[in-house]
Structure formats: structure tokens, C-alpha cells
Design brief:
Layout: H1 9-21, E1 26-30, E2 33-38, E3 41-47, E4 50-54, H2 56-63, E5 70-71, E6 83-86, H3 88-91, H4 94-109
Antiparallel strand pairs: 1-2, 2-3, 3-4, 4-6, 5-6
């Protein structure tokens, strides 16, 4: 089993500020981390101390040119195409971060709404 990093308190606080500022986002967890979804699609979230955005291939390539940004890889060697982890300098600067968040919201907002599968969102039972 792969051990995933816990979300840092600072990353969670910054994520919550972003999520509160955009009422269309639905907050829930992905990879055990606070994440925001739009029309059923992942839009942005924390992973350890990082902020991950879904920007699509073109947007992720552009954001990947920022010093310190890198493709999002929840497991070593398994990058998710179109997703980028922003560098702390951007994540910690609301003025620099806002255009990237808006871009993620635009990209995900243009996707067709995702149908919820039956049983999704219910707590899992640990019984076997």
C-alpha cells in the first residue's frame, strides 16, 4: 500500500480560502486530501503541502514552466496528464494564485457534467 502525504495545516488553510471564495465548488476529499470539484470533476486540491490544479494538457504545460511547478504524481512515476502542482511561491501569493485558480475553474467548467455513480459519497464500511 502506498503511503500518501497528509495535507499540511498551511495548505489546508489556503485551500479553504480559495474554496470559500468560489461558491460553485463542492468540497470533498480525493486521495484523503481536501479537494474542490465542479460539476463532478476534480478542479483543485491539496496534496501534502502543495496545491494541485486541473488545467488540461495545454494549461498544465504552461504552468509547468513556472519555477518549482511540476506534474502532479500521487504515486512515483504516475503523473496525471493535465494536472499540475504549483510551486509554494505561487500557492502562498493570492495575487499570483488567483489567475491559475480561475483558469482551472474555466477548464473544468467547460467539461460536460459528470454523472454521479450510485453509492458514491457514502462512507465506506471497514467490515470484510
Amino acid at each position: 500500500m502506498v503511503k500518501l502525504p497528509a495535507a499540511s495545516a498551511g495548505a489546508v488553510a489556503r485551500f479553504e480560502e480559495i474554496a470559500r471564495s468560489e461558491p460553485r465548488l463542492e468540497v470533498r476529499r480525493m486521495f484523503g486530501q481536501p479537494s474542490a470539484f465542479l460539476s463532478g470533476h476534480f478542479c483543485l486540491g491539496t496534496f501534502g503541502g502543495e496545491l494541485v490544479l486541473r488545467l488540461g494538457p495545454k494549461g498544465a504545460d504552461e504552468a509547468g514552466r513556472l519555477p518549482g511547478a511540476h506534474p502532479f504524481s500521487p504515486m512515483a512515476g504516475r503523473s496525471m496528464a493535465g494536472y499540475i502542482a504549483l510551486p509554494p511561491a505561487i500557492f502562498e501569493d493570492p495575487t499570483a494564485l488567483r489567475p491559475w485558480v480561475e483558469r482551472a475553474i474555466r477548464f473544468v467548467g467547460d467539461l460536460p457534467p459528470k454523472e454521479r455513480r450510485p453509492g458514491r459519497g457514502r462512507p465506506r464500511s471497514n467490515a470484510r
